[in-house]
Amino acid sequence: MKRAALFSFIAGLVCCFSAAQTTVLPAQLPSGWVKDGPPSEFRGGSLFNYIDGGAEIFLEFGFDRLLVQSCKKGNAEIVVELFGMESPASALGIYLMKCGTETPLEGVPARNSGDKTQLTIVKGAAFIHVNNLEGSSSVLPAMAEIARRLLEGIPEGKPVTLLEGLPSEGRIQGSERLIRGPYALQSIVTLGEGDVLGLEGKIFALAADYRDQAGEPSSRILVGYPDDVRAAEVFRNLVAGLDPYLKIVEKRERGLVFTDYRGKVGTIERTGARLEIRLNLAARPSQALRNPAAVSGGTGLM
Amino acid sequence: MGKGSRLSPGLPGCLDRRGFLKMGGVTGLGLWLGNRSLKALAQEPAAPPPRPKTNIEDALRVPKTKFSLPGFFPGKVVEVQDAAAVKDDKPVSRAVYRMVEKGLEGLTRKSGKDSCRLFFGRDDVVGIKVNPVGPGTISTHLEVVDALVDWLVSGGVDRKNIIIWDRFDYMLKDAGFTPERFPGVGIEGLQTMDEAAAMGKTQDNSRWLKPDGTHVSTGNFDLEAYYWADVEAPRDSAYLNQHVFNGKYSYFGRLLTKRLTKIINVPVFKNTGNSISMATKNLGYGAVCNTNRLHAPLFFDVNTEVMAFPAVRDKLVLNVTDGLRGQYDGGPEYEAKFAYWLNTLYFATDPFALDMVCHQQIVAKRKAMSVKVNEHPKFTEYLRYAERLGLGVVSADKLQHVRV
């Protein structure tokens, strides 16, 4: 596929896949590599047919379309998975869930993490896996080259500034996450059943781990709602449906303090249209949060 | 990620598939619904839905046998690690054989054929349940099965009475479990599934759907032996292709109910979300059909309850968790970033004790690798449930974790 056509395809990705393009990679592959048949395509809920058991998190973050293309050279095989997400924030959300401790590969012109077995890349609204099924180190240059050619046609998209809403003091780099529903939330904490934060697949909550001055780790989740009324409703529902393993030990003017199944302390506090949850605290805070995080009401993407 | 599809028989999740598709559909619109809808949604209570009824009582009414779970060594888990087990990203057969010998001896206090004869008689038909998901990467290693087959033969079990099995026939082949690789040993899937149809590459359903509208693998399941749960399955053809039946019944494979007299379970050391997909999930979701409907409402309780039925409870005599290569995140399908060589095998007659030990180990690994960890008790509740049912021993004060 020529670059113009590739660009057209990627533009289609970003525009929620209105285009009927069905190719993933440019015609010019690294020397000796050939496409192994046509790509497979999965739209919306059909993603279950490809990664049944792992599709839920993609759908939660806002999945539009996946194209899968296998390439071969002798016995070596590279499989490219190009996920088109709803928005750059959706793509970043998935990337942060999947990248692990980031180990960027030099020469790949986008945020990435990987090694000889798999590259995980995010650019604009695209989330990409480049998989080396055999795991041989000799394939790594071809993986990187394929990634570079693919990325040439993918627009940067609107910069995602969501994570700037997380306080920087004491934040553990690399611990940042986006949350758009119960699957992403569950990877961090169980506060209750279902969409207890009332994100409804539209609002992005922010999460990160922190260390205090004594070096003690804890976690924060921050949510900005459209208005005070909505935040108050979510807070009431959250308290009413709070996970039975979390015991409320103190009610405060703007929130509450709880202990979890390990005796760790947590707090939930609403300030206007903001909700802030602190987890894994070693001791009960002496008072409600004095410095609510810098998430202003309505900053969550919708 | 595996070759071709990443479909797996053991599927984690917390939402009903179709329910989630509907949710995804709404999400896909990317539209703000407006205050009216939000208020309506906000008024919905967040209380957990009631647990669906199941036929677990049917299982509990059947008297146990001397082979019933938790087997001869309740609560005992033997761990064998050997740094020489893998070389150049490939298992070393000789080292794996030694590990199997050490593990079995550590578990039974008997060596060689004596340990085999503790579990098996000459007339037994032994099924080796493997996990072929992530073929050639995070699937059960062939070398481990080699060692177990040889151990069985040394104890007097005829090769023709050994059957390597999984729920899906094509996955066995992809993972290398072929008649050519294991001559004289049976290789059987409980069912087939048309991958091309599942992936939307063809509209031709004739490879899996009979003219009468039933799945070609229908006859492989025992309509008299089932796990029933008050949960309806989706009625669409994609579900039927993968799960053979719709409705509220998950039938046991006839291989288990009619032919196998003993089972060895050989899962892989890997996670699924905050939990694990190892010994109990390999059989809980691998011994019956029509399972995807069960994930959301019953989660891992299915592992416990399916294994309470005689087809598993009275035949599963040994579990060997293949931790030559482990995966601490991204499971149950292969996610290369999180796979690593662990060089370890685990042995137990009690699959619940085994899963408890492995769960604790994978949590420790996730923490060490800075993966988010949610240690909520609900992710191990199914193991305590099994203990209450007398199927396993998982209490910390009763677990016996032995490293040899």
Pick out its properties.
heterodimer, A: 302 residues, alpha+beta, seven-stranded antiparallel sheet, 14 strands, elongated, disordered N terminus, B: ten-stranded mixed sheet, 20% strand
Mean pLDDT of chain A: 86
* Helical content of chain B (DSSP H or I, runs of 4+): 25-40%
Query: Could you say which overall geometry of chain A the principal axes of the C-alpha atoms support?
Result: elongated
Largest interface: A-B, 71 and 68 residues
From the alpha carbons, calculate the radius of gyration of chain A and give it in angstroms: 21 Å
Poorly predicted runs of chain A: 1-21, 288-302
What is the β-strand count of chain B? 14
Helix content of chain A: 10-25%
Distance, first to last CA of chain B: 33 Å
Could you tell me the radius of gyration of chain B in angstroms?
A: 21 Å
Low-pLDDT parts of chain B are 1-46
Q: What's the story with the biggest beta sheet of chain A?
A: 7 strands, antiparallel
- What is the ordering of alpha helices and beta strands of chain A? HEEHHEEHEEEHEHEEHEEEE
Tally of alpha and pi helices of chain B: 16
C-alpha end-to-end distance of chain A: 35 Å
Report the sheet with the most strands of chain B, covering strand number, pairing sense and barrel closure: 10 strands, mixed
